[in-house]
Write a structure and sequence with these properties.
The chain is built from 9 helices and no strands. It is mainly α. It has a single domain, classed as Heme Oxygenase, Chain A (Up-down Bundle), CATH 1.20.910.10.
Length: about 200
């Protein structure tokens, strides 16, 4: 069936998705600017190497599709706006291979992408909340969570359609495994003692 992969991803990641959502909370009141900056630094440290890993696994024909979805530049721009320093990302520690999901084929790349692309749906609610809490100017410090802005729904649908069309059934297990690992490694990377309440609102249907 056309959406078997997406159904499996949703059903088989539900527990780890719920675990991450309950462990992290950006929709709370009282978010502090320093906490938020620390969160974005951790996100950047994960997202930048993760994007390199996914990009390396995709055929050249899929590079435009993926490049349109890269968000490390949004995180860099947010940190520059919040810190007043365009070199704010230069000293950030990157996650190494052991802190990222194993991405070694098309299925695992799209399974991991499912988590990150799905997070843009929750980001539509996080972005304005963060802006209100911290008094941010539009797009100045919350661009990462704003994701694709008004295009978020259409970009999510395009991802779903592409995943369903090109991931072979023989790689569905790899896709689910990578999605679970993405949720779990995000949890482990973001939930550190130095961060009170980092958050990512994850994948939807």
């Amino acid at each position: 069936m056309r959406h078997d992969l997406l159904s499996r991803l949703k059903q088989e990641t539900a527990a780890c998705h719920s675990r991450l959502e309950h462990a992290l909370d950006l929709m709370r009141d009282g978010l502090l600017r320093d906490e938020y900056i620390a969160l974005l630094e951790r996100f950047y440290g994960y997202v930048a190497p993760w994007e390199d890993a996914v990009g390396a696994c995709l055929h050249a024909s899929l590079h435009p599709f993926f490049d349109e979805r890269r968000k490390a530049p949004l995180l860099a721009a947010d940190l520059a706006a919040l810190c007043g320093d365009s070199t704010a990302v230069d000293s950030i520690m990157f996650a190494d291979a052991s802190s990222l999901p194993l991405i070694d084929d098309l299925g695992s790349a799209f399974g991991s992408l499912y988590v990150m692309e799905g997070s843009t749906l929750g980001g539509r609610f996080i972005a304005p909340h963060v802006a209100k809490q911290l008094g941010l100017a539009p797009g100045a410090g919350n661009a990462y969570f704003d994701g694709y802005g008004p295009r978020t729904g259409s970009m999510w649908n395009a991802f779903r359609e592409t995943a369903a069309a090109i991931v072979p059934e023989t790689q569905y297990d790899a896709a689910v495994r990578a999605a679970v690992e993405t949720f779990d490694t995000l949890h482990d990377w973001l939930c550190v003692e130095s961060l009170d309440a980092p958050a990512i609102s994850g994948a939807a249907a």
